[in-house]
Amino acid sequence: MSVKLGVPSKGRLMEKTFDWFADRGVKLSRTGSDREYAGAVEGIEGIELVLLSAGEIPRELAAGRIHLGVTGSDLVREKLALWEEKVVELEPMGFGHADLVIAVPRAWVDVTTIDDLDAVAAAFRRRHGFRLRIATKYHRLIRDYLRAGGVADYQLVDSQGATEGTVKNETAEAIADITSTGETLRANHLKILSGGPVHRSQATLFKSRQADWTPEDRMVLAHLKAMLQIER
Amino acid sequence: MAEKAAIRAEAARLLTLFEGQGASVVETPILQPAETLLDLYGEDIRARAYVTSDPAMGEAMLRPDFTVPVVEMHMAEGAEPARYTYAGEVFRKQEDDPHRTPEYFQVGYEVFDREDPAAADAEVFALFHETLSGLGLRAATGDMGLLMAAVAGLTTTDRRRRALMRHLWRPRRFRVLLDRFAGRTPSPEGREALAKGDPFDGMDAPVIGLRDRAEIEERIAALREDMATPPIPEGEVELLGDLMGLRETLDNVCEHLRDIAVDMPAISDAVERFAARNEALKKRGVDPSEIDFEGSFGRTTLEYYDGFVFGFHADRHDLPPVATGGRYDALTRVLGGGREIPAVGGVIRPEVLLEIRGAGA
């Protein structure tokens, strides 16, 4: 048996993950042809590399099909109910930063906080006869955040892309999305609600609580953690 | 948990019992149009109900409760007064507590009667009390009508009263607003800038989306008016706190409520309705000195209860309530398309009942 490490299979996230491990003496690489999702691990014994889409890594961790996985902290929270019972955050990796924020039209000069959003939602529903629409793909994170903030009279509408354009297109009144610089929001005449982001996401190394951890696997993990200088 | 066949048999027994009280047995579809439920309950129901789609009916939900379809059916074709009973499964996701079952039986009893609400409340409660007797359950009750009357009677603007009423079922948010309206906490970030001048000064972004400039200006005017509104008197806030914090038996609380009503006359009518219900309960053989009252009971359940509310619990944290119910007059107004009728009802969960009976045997 070996410890299965799931990492993103392509793009900058994969490269940065490889760099992060390499800096700590663990060399990850893709093997075979460009199209083949196979990988190799050098510098430590007993670890098998599994290349996956970043979006699938939370589910694989929760199912225990991989022992360790690198993915965005936002994806774990969004895709897994009770995520803390299924995975452990071993180490934030310092890249892939993005904030999940709620944004409204900049012309809404009367709106600064989530408190204002709630009041506007009440008035909007009275006036227009339906609940204020917030376009997002982060349904769980946003719903939990708005519930905790006591916001009522809203509805989430699913948007898997070009979310910032939904307000102008009048398919939503507000949006909730990931942003790193806020540039796209500004270009679409939107502003972020104050009070901090809903979630500050970054690439994170997770450990599965559901995977089968044999005594050998645990020794491999201890060795890996020592190399990566992970305390917890 | 008991076998499904046993649960089904227990549900059938309860259904027959309720039918014997003069209720008509009704059936409702398991697939409900999602739109009605979403409009009523908001986004939270999407997190709790199973949503599916049908090529013809569009987005649909597996029935998360019976109340909505039964009310809709009554408003469409029911004669008055009416008593209904039903038994069947409801479906709720249990993401936060995976040990709870996501599909379970409910057996319900609902009364639509505009003649004597106190008697109808007592009829439903007494029936449940009798049906569940001998199991060592604790019965707790509350009265959302008292809280609504208290909020409606606060010395402040309509707008503030409406904001508080809207969040009566979200205790934390209610507290934040009440503290703000009472001048106990500073006004939120961004309000100062709206106090004077033209807030659109220097705004280079266009007004986009359905919410137009008139709506934004309307809210600014409302916020300015609100900034000039004096705080809700401290005494009223304290009385409201007393009311929400009440925990006594039904007979003791009646006296206490009359004391509060001296300083808070707005709740007088609601207190008299409360007293009338106690009398009606006695007539039905329920002793008010054995039933608990909690001022805030019902504030964290689904927000359609607006009067008497009740629950029967075993003294076990691993089990949900055996039975819950209450009055939902406003729901009939929302679903009635201009018509309304006072309504009260409740449900029993037969598998919880069997579990408790089994544990006691």
TrEMBL record, chain A:
Residues 54-213 form the ATP phosphoribosyltransferase catalytic domain. Its EC number is 2.4.2.17. GO terms for molecular function: ATP phosphoribosyltransferase activity. It catalyses: 1-(5-phospho-beta-D-ribosyl)-ATP + diphosphate = 5-phospho-alpha-D-ribose 1-diphosphate + ATP. The keyword NADP does not apply. Pathway: Amino-acid biosynthesis; L-histidine biosynthesis; L-histidine from 5-phospho-alpha-D-ribose 1-diphosphate: step 1/9. Keywords: Amino-acid biosynthesis, Glycosyltransferase, Histidine biosynthesis, Transferase. Catalyzes the condensation of ATP and 5-phosphoribose 1-diphosphate to form N'-(5'-phosphoribosyl)-ATP (PR-ATP). Has a crucial role in the pathway because the rate of histidine biosynthesis seems to be controlled primarily by regulation of HisG enzymatic activity. This is ATP phosphoribosyltransferase. It comes from Maritimibacter dapengensis. The lineage of its organism: Bacteria, Pseudomonadati, Pseudomonadota, Alphaproteobacteria, Rhodobacterales. The gene is hisG.
From TrEMBL, chain B:
Keywords: Glycosyltransferase, Transferase. Residues 1-217 form the Aminoacyl-transfer RNA synthetases class-II family profile domain. One of its GO terms (molecular function) is glycosyltransferase activity. The keyword Transferase applies. Pfam families: tRNA-synt_His. Homodimer. PANTHER family: HISTIDINE--TRNA LIGASE, MITOCHONDRIAL-RELATED (PTHR43707:SF1), HISTIDYL-TRNA SYNTHETASE (PTHR43707). This is Histidine--tRNA ligase.
